[in-house]
Amino acid sequence: MSHEITNTDGLVLHAKKAWHGIGKVVESAPTPGQALTLAGIDWNVEERELHLEQQTGLATMAHTPITTHKALQRSDNNQVLSVVGTNYEVLQNEELASFCYDLAGEADVRVESAGSLKGGRRIWFLLKSETLCVGKQCDEVEPYVLCYNSHDGSSSLEFMPTTIRVVCNNTLTWARGKSQNKFRFRHTKNMKSHMRAAVQEIRDCFLSIEEWNKNMDVLASQEMSHDQIGSYFWRAYEAVQGVVPSLEDGGKMAASRQARADETIDQWIRTLHREANDHQLPVTKWLAVNAVTNYIDHNSRVNRSVRSDHADSTEARTWSNLFGGNAAKKARALSVMQSM
Question: Which of 55, 158, 180, 223 could join 176 in a cystine, given CB atoms 3.0 to 4.6 angstroms apart?
Answer without folding.
Answer: 180
